[in-house]
């Protein structure tokens, strides 16, 4: 599982020379926006579409999870509000952490204290965006979450590639060595005598 992504708040995002440094949206990246306020959802959609993202929408966590399950196309980022009826954003993030661990997730909220925020997000690997935020802040956090997810995905693929390249005989030898080592450690532990 991916390591925790640092919380990114709009007011602490880096700027150079007074201008925001925005990474361009990769062509065709798809973002699912889960937000119960239709006006906020519409503003987010326009901001992301202006940057080249394909945007899907859901009005609450239950609808969002249903859409994720039914959607046949690629999905790159889920941007979800934390406070929603039916299924909240924290539950969405936890479900995705189990079933889609390589999917980038960004939670957003405007009413949580730093302590509440730390408690809610401590068990997840999601980024956070504090409301209200500017279109530039939104784009930056989404692009950063996407970049981190792509790095984790590339690392996982590289590991799988290395494992696939080992011949079956070598994999069996490594497994046998691990079992033998485990048995030796168990024997040492039972006798309470360890090699020097």
Concise overview:
By secondary structure, the protein is of the alpha/beta class. It has six helices and five strands, in the order βαβαβαβαβαα.
Mean pLDDT: 78
- First-to-last CA distance: 35 Å
- The low-confidence runs, each spanning 5 or more residues with pLDDT under 50, are 1-22
Instruction: Please summarize the sheet with the most strands.
Output: 5 strands, parallel
Structural class: alpha/beta
CATH topology of the largest domain: Rossmann fold
Gross CATH architecture of the largest domain? 3-Layer(aba) Sandwich
CATH class of the largest domain: Alpha Beta
Strand segment count? 5
Order of strands across the main sheet: 2-1-3-4-5
């Amino acid at each position: 599982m991916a390591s925790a992504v640092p919380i990114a708040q709009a007011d602490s995002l880096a700027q150079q020379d007074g201008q925001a440094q925005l990474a361009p949206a990769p062509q065709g990246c798809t973002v699912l926006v889960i937000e119960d306020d239709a006006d906020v959802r519409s503003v987010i959609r326009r901001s992301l579409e202006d940057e080249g993202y394909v945007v899907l929408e859901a009005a609450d966590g239950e609808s969002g999870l249903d859409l994720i399950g039914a959607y046949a196309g690629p999905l790159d980022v889920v941007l979800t509000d934390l406070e929603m009826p039916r299924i909240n954003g924290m539950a969405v993030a936890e479900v995705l952490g189990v079933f889609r661990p390589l999917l980038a997730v960004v939670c957003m909220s405007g009413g949580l204290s730093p302590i509440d925020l730390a408690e809610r997000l401590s068990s997840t690997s999601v980024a956070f965006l504090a409301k209200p935020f500017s279109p530039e802040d939104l784009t930056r956090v989404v692009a950063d979450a996407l970049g981190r997810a792509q790095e984790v995905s590339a690392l996982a693929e590289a590991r799988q590639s290395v494992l696939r390249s080992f011949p079956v005989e070598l994999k069996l030898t490594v497994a046998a060595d691990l079992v033998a080592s485990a048995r030796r450690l168990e024997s040492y532990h039972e006798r309470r005598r360890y090699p020097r």
